[in-house]
């Protein structure tokens, strides 16, 4: 599987092992046409990105554009039951791609800590999640995607169990891509096929935390051997993310139907 771009990677700005320029040069050596750095956002407790470092972070990524086409990205966290995510206001208008997923080691609101995090940690320990908790998790994640400008839903179903089809419906409405994560896929081939039937579009990412793992997606290749799919379902096999977004914008303008209007960058974190 040859990727045109890898859009989920981490550096020393959060929990990655390498600096920005080393990651970029490794991506270039692997033949990628476009690359994104998407370090963890500010509510991650261990090795989370610090908002005060954003200008330096942005500057290093933009400087790396001398090497290859680059995107400034963030992997945001769901932090409240109302679907709030943790992007700092100083990041307003400065991110090219926003990923969002559920992580465990995150600063949640008190209510989310009690009713979302703690129950999910318990149910994960006993390897069973009841239906009421799956419904709660589904509602929280769908609110996050509906209420924010999320470009990619990362590692679906990995840390909390939910109804991936219900979230996929919202992703289709909002134009949010669903990630096939190179480290682990936590849903079944039949779920993938049902999401595809809903009209969902997917993106394959490595979730690399070091230079060696960039564009490493062997697990995705094995997963797709058990799925009915076409190359057009996965946006970064035949084009870059930027090409995909530009083509989508052109099509919407020609049709006179731009679809669901997403909030502008920077409203993240202002919701209660």
CATH superfamily: Metal-dependent hydrolases
Instruction: State the shape.
Output: globular
Instruction: Give the DSSP E fraction (strand runs of 2 or more residues).
Output: 5-15%
Named CATH architecture: Alpha-Beta Barrel
Give start-end ranges of low-pLDDT stretches. 264-272
What is the CA-CA span between the terminal residues? 42 Å
Q: Please, how many helices?
A: 8
Q: How many strands appear in the DSSP assignment? A: 7
Q: What's the pLDDT, averaged over the residues?
A: 92
Percent range of helical residues = 25-40%
Rg for CA atoms = 18 Å
Which structural class should the secondary elements be placed in? alpha/beta
Summed up, the domain count is 1
CATH class: Alpha Beta
The main β sheet shows up as:
7 strands, parallel
Would you give the CATH topology? TIM Barrel
Order of neighbouring strands in the sheet with most strands: 1-2-3-4-5-6-7
Reconstruct the topology from this structure.
Blueprint: E1 5-6, H1 20-29, E2 34-40, H2 54-63, E3 70-77, E4 97-101, H3 110-125, H4 131-147, E5 152-153, H5 164-174, E6 177-181, H6 189-198, E7 202-205, H7 218-224, H8 241-255
Parallel strand pairs: 1-2, 2-3, 3-4, 4-5, 5-6, 6-7
Summarize the structure in short.
The protein is an alpha/beta fold.
Write structural notes for this entry:
The structure is a single chain. This protein is an alpha/beta fold and 272 residues long. It contains 8 helices and 7 strands. It has helices at 20-29, 54-63, 110-125, 131-147, 164-174, 189-198, 218-224, 241-255; strands at residues 5-6, 34-40, 70-77, 97-101, 152-153, 177-181, 202-205. It has a 7-stranded parallel β-sheet. Helix 4 (131-147) packs parallel to helix 5 and helix 5 (164-174) packs parallel to helix 6 (189-198). It is globular, with a radius of gyration of 18 Å. The termini are far apart. Residues 264-272 have low confidence and may be disordered.
């Amino acid at each position: 599987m040859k990727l045109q771009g890898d859009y989920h990677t981490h550096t020393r700005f959060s929990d990655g092992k390498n600096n920005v320029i080393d990651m970029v040069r490794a991506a270039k050596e692997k033949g990628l046409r476009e690359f994104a750095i998407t370090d963890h956002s500010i509510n991650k407790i261990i090795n989370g990105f610090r908002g005060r470092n954003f200008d330096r972070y942005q500057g290093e990524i933009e400087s790396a554009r001398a090497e290859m086409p680059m995107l400034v990205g963030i992997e945001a966290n769901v932090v409240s039951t109302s679907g709030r995510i943790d992007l700092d206001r100083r990041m307003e208008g400065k991110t090219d791609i926003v990923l969002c997923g559920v992580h465990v080691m995150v600063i949640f609101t008190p209510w989310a800590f009690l009713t979302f995090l703690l129950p999910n940690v318990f149910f994960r320990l006993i390897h069973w999640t009841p239906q009421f908790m799956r419904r709660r998790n589904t509602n929280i994640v769908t609110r996050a995607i509906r209420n924010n400008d999320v470009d990619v839903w990362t590692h679906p179903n990995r840390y909390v169990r939910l109804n991936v089809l219900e979230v996929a419906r919202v992703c289709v409405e909002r134009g949010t891509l669903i990630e096939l994560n190179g480290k682990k896929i936590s849903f079944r081939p039949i779920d993938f096929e049902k999401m595809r039937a809903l009209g969902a579009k997917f993106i394959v990412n490595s979730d690399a935390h070091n230079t060696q793992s960039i564009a490493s997606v062997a697990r995705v290749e094995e997963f797709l051997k058990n799925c009915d799919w076409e190359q057009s379902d996965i946006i970064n096999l035949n084009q870059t993310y930027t090409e995909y977004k530009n083509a989508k914008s052109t099509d919407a303008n020609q049709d006179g139907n731009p679809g669901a209007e997403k909030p502008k960058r920077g409203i993240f974190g202002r919701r209660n």
